[in-house]
Each structure stands twice: as structure tokens, then as C-alpha cells.
Amino acid sequence: MVEQFTRNEKVGGSTPLSGTIMNFIIISVCCIFITYFLVMLLHQCADRIGLVAPPQSHHFHDPLMAHGAGIGMAIAFLGGAVMSMLISSLNGLGWPLLCGGLAMSALGLGDDIHPLSPLLRLIVQGGIVAGVMLFIQPFVLSVSLIMALFVLLWWVNLTNFMDGINGLVAWQGIYFSMSILGLSMSGLITLPPQFLIIYSLLAAVIVGFLLYNRPTFRIFMGDAGGLFLGYTYGIVAWFTIEGSWLPLSFWLIIGGVFWIDSGWTLFWRVVNGEKWYRPHRQHAYQLLSDMLIARQENKSALVVHRSHSRVCILYILVNLLWLLPLAVISVRAPLWQFWLLALAWLPLLFTVWGVRYYAMRHHPSLFA
Fold first, then answer.
1. Residue 282 main-chain phi, psi, to 5 deg
2. Roughly how many angstroms between the first and final C-alpha of the chain, as a whole number?
3. ∠ CA(88), CA(229), CA(180), 5° rounding?
4. Domain parsing of the chain, residue ranges
5. Which backbone phi and psi does 13 adopt, to 5 degrees?
6. Integer-rounded Cα radius of gyration of the chain
7. pTM
8. pLDDT, tens digit (0-9, with 9 covering 90-100), for 25-76
9. In sequence order, what E strands does 21-88 have?
């Protein structure tokens, strides 16, 4: 069981692994610099290794912009986790997480270099997630485990789907990591120390990626990054649910903008008889960004960057001011989980519907 892979102790309101906290700060800082260096190296070598190619249609990126930086993030994360395990055991959380994350990033890198068929991608993703889950819970095959497999696969892919404008998935990752760390340090939630190490390392590699891409983006994380972050955040969330540290409602609420934007868009594409598995630009965040750009006569890279930044800021504000407080309440008041989830999701659902309706009425060319 998952409990056998994590410590029995919980922390809340205290610094994880007291006495060695400085070591983990140093490791996190090292991860920032390692990620920065690897992303820079990938950027310089992108043309030679096939990482400069026309993006898929769900992206709004410069066709000559390099992508695939996510593999650098995955390698830096792997190095940071190994260094952490030399100081304090992650009690089985480490290797399944690391091997699966690196495999998922390698799959994404392959797709960045030479696009794979949707079915092949899904089969390989399913094999990676199922292999990790069965390694953690051997000989335990249940309906709940199968459902968790499909939910994790959906989360991995929707995270990648949401990587269609500059920085959205990266800032969402920062939001996840810093929220968990802040809530744990303040005592509002309780998690074993190894989870906090993982979230610190994830934040560090994302910061390294963002630092290299300032003031404007020079290389994108690509599928190598989207699949890696989706898998890693998803599998750790599953750990916390199986270990009874955090309820499912917490994760459904705190990631609400991704769940609703991606889920509602998929629903309408299926209803309209569209090829839902094909790349597109019909998510609410894409429509918002495209409508902001359409208002400008000059469609320069700076205008595109500003429109993307505004949408990212909007999503982060919704996360911090609406979803995060409700997610915390769902932990503190478990009897109200269902109602809190409905309260969190319904306004998002109406907003996403409204954005789509407005875009169809005033900017029909966006759906061509």
C-alpha cells in the first residue's frame, strides 16, 4: 500500500526535516541553475536535434521558436531528487516518481522531435502510469485503482493541452508547489516531509525554466515539459489521496481552472462531432489570448507576449483568490466537500461557456 512508501509522521506548521533544511535549500537553488544551464544548452542545440519545427495548432508560438526544454527540467529534477535521497530517504516515493517522470518527458521529447500518433502516445502514457501504480500497489487491482489510472491519464494530457500560450503551465506549477508548501508550513494542511521536498524541487526547475525565458520566451517546454509536469503533479496528488493526507476534492478544486477549461472544451468538441483528439485552439485561455491579440493592429511578438501574460495573470488570480481558499476549507470541513467543489466549479463553468459563446458570436474566425 501507499502508506508503506511514506513516513508515518506528518508535518504541519514546522519546517520539514529540521536540521537539514539548509541542505534542501541548497539543492533547490542548484536545481534552478542546473535547469537554467540545461535549457540554455537545449536552446543552443535545438536546430541540430530537430527541436525547431512548426508547433502543433493548439500552440500560439513562433514557428521558429525552439521547444522541448521540458527534458532539461526533468533531468534537473531527477538530479535534485537523487541528491535529496542521499540526505534523507524519500521512502519509496522517489524512484517510481523519477523513473515515470523521466519516461514521460522522454516520450514528450520524441513527440516534439517527430509527432507521434495520438493512439500511440496514449498507449505509452497508459503503460507508464499503470506500471508505476502497480509497482506501488502490487497485486492490488480494484475499480478505484482503474478509475485513478484514467483520471491520472486525463490530468497528464489536459496539462499538456493547457500548454498553448507562453507560461501558463509553468505558472500553474509554481502555484501548485508554493500553495502546498505555504499551507503545510502554516499548519493548514499536513503532509510528510518527502512531499514537501518534491514540491520544492518542482518549483525550482520551473523557476530555472522561467528565468531563462525572461524577458520574453526563447524556448518552450513542449510536450517534454507538459507531460512531465502533468505526470509528476498527478502521481504525487494520487499519493496524498491514497495515504489519506488530502482528499480528492482538494485537488479537484485547487486545479479547477485546468479541469473545467479542458473538460468543457472537450465536451463541446465531442458534441459538435469534431475530431476531439486533434490539436486545436478552442480552450478558453486560447480564445481569451487570441481575442486580445485580435484587438491590436500590430500583431508583433511583444503584443502576443503581453496578451499571454495577461491571461496567465488572470488564471493565477482566480487560483489564489477563489480556488485556493475553497480547497483549504474542503480539507478543514470534509462534510462540505461536495458543496465546496460545486461552489468552486460552477462559476468557472459559466465563465468558460461565456468566453466560448462570446468568441463564437464576435470572433467566429477563431473556430475555423
1. -115, 5
2. 49
3. 60
4. 1-246, 247-368
5. 80, 10
6. 20
7. 0.92
8. 899 999 999 999 999 999 999 888 888 865 554 555 455 678 899 999 999 9
9. 66-67
